[in-house]
Amino acid sequence: MSELHEKLRLINTYVAFRDPPIDVIALANVLGLKVYNTHWPDNVSGKIQKDLAKGGPSGFAIFVNKTHSEERKRFTIAHEIAHYVLHESQIGDGIFDDAMYRSGLSSKIEAEANGLAADILMPWSQVQILMTNHTIEEMARHFKVSVQAMTVRLGIFA
């Protein structure tokens, strides 16, 4: 089994046996990633880079803007996990993601990271259960994500 498939299997197993909201810091730790809160300007959401401290077994660490809302930090951590899983070879000296989750990498790569982040935070099988009798706001609270993230997950675009 390839390293990518093993990482995806770990994520799928972790998410499948937990109720929302998914503990993304614990998931990062399962994958060998350390997570740190740091103070950055509001236009910087997060970063994944080689762990220069005595880090985890993966050798990578996630840094998240501690001033952002809990929902935003959760999405940022899931997004950086996705970069580690899907784009590890492209991390190099680090990937900074701005507030719009743009890093300088291609739009395709950022869309892939956003897609996996959504799968982690809002597993489709669980979203479908709530869709018929909950509002978008209720669903967002249930998954501990922003209304905007929930709206995108549902495919509703204004």
TrEMBL record:
Pfam families: Peptidase_M78 (PF06114). It comes from the Bacteria. Residues 62-154 form the IrrE N-terminal-like domain. Transmembrane segments: none annotated. InterPro entries: IrrE_HExxH, Rad_response_metalloprotease. This is ImmA/IrrE family metallo-endopeptidase.
